[in-house]
Amino acid sequence: MPNKTQIKKIKQSGLQxxxxxxxxxASSGARLLSNRAASLFLSADDRxxxxxxxxxxxxxxxxxxxxxxxxxxxxxxxxxxxYGDGLLPKEVTDALHHxxxxxxxxxxxxxxxxxxxxxxxxxxxxxxxQKPVAAASLAQLHRATCVKDGRSLxxxxxxxxxAETIDSDFRGLMQMLRLxxxxxxxxxxxxxxxxxxxxxxxxxxxxxxxRMTERVAELLSGNGRYIVPxxxxxxxxxxxxxxxxxxxxxxxxxxxxxxxxxxxxxxxxSMLDVFFKEVFEWGIMQxxxxxxxxxxxxxxxxxxxxxxxxxxxxxxxGAVRELDATFLTALRKTIIASYRQDxxxxxxxxxxxxxxxxxxxxxxxxxxxDFCMLLMEPFRKDKSDIPHFAxxxxxxxxxxxxxxxxxxxxxGAKSVAVEGFSPxxxxxxxxxxxxxxxxxxxxxxxxxxxxxxxxxxxx
Length: 459
Description:
- By secondary structure, the protein is an alpha+beta fold.
- It has helices spanning about 15-40, 45-70, 70-85, 90-95, 110-120, 165-180, 185-205, 205-220, 255, 260-280, 325-340, 345-350, 360-375, 405-415, 425-445, 450-455, and strands spanning about 5, 105, 125-130, 135, 140-145, 150-160, 225, 240-245, 285, 295, 310-315, 320, 395-400, 450.
- The strands form five sheets. Strands 3, 4, 5, 6 and 8 form a five-stranded antiparallel sheet that branches.
- The protein is globular.
- About 35% of the residues are buried.
């Protein structure tokens, strides 16, 4: 749900937005230089601490500036937070993560003209609630009713001017980052920003999102465990996407936590199964696994164990990516080798994924392989090496008691700290983000399952 704060409009003038962000960059750069000058006579440790505190303050101010400008800047900032490790200071990525909570909606007076202009006479065929049911960085959602047949619909409306300001916003943001000296010019940075821009362009293309939604719906056709909204083409355009409104609960809702263990386990299997279908069958992946992109539709309110009829509702296909065939082959190899605890094959797969290089020291390779193998712990058939606290009396894996993500995070941090390690490519970062989201979803369900059957069919 959006928060109570609403804004009247988004600054759409490229000059207006560039000036605002450039001014912020110049001011921040000047303050950081001033701080460096003032700390010249401090000890090395005190000087480092002073710089880190100043950087954290400036990163917070920078994040606030992006939030006020809204539109593409917020989304770019969110993407930078997710994929900026190794290219941006940690203080900056930490601050940018707060943009994930920037959910201020746009006033109806700014949204209605978009709908009227784009839909024309079709606008009168809909009764649209003026209050949004959700808001994000690039768009907001409104309930609607089709006047003719009473169908309940959901309309995703892109904020005015967002698509048109992507180019200028990127130029302005890169200028700001260089003014603050948070990034340096270089091939890695240019590739990184180009990739983020390409992902953003895809997300504002609602005709592409429509195609991806229909493609996933076709892939899951006949599978009673899932629901994908039907797109209403008559009311969908390049910047408006209209679909069936589907009732359901978020996984954090108490109604889900009250379900029987069997029903929660079945929902967890459905979520895990989708991930492995994406990797091993489809070659496309929804790379934004936040809880808002999923709902659970219950078969009935009681707590019986007829779990197979509860449905997982899949939403928001703007972040669906088509995975490169070479990357997919290497990813499948790495996952299977991690499942089999075959360290040599994991390292080989990671090199093919460009996560490791042949020239890396053996300790770097082994540390990364250990991280990958730990992530496959819930899927192991042999439980002999799994911590006792992660298993129940039936030898089933207890996701919520396993501390898997915490243990994997510590091991991952240890891997990064090894001298010679370099940040993995953005494709791997996408997969890591997806896997983290899927595992968190299953953990929230407090699932207790043996998941090896999900992966063994792909061996």
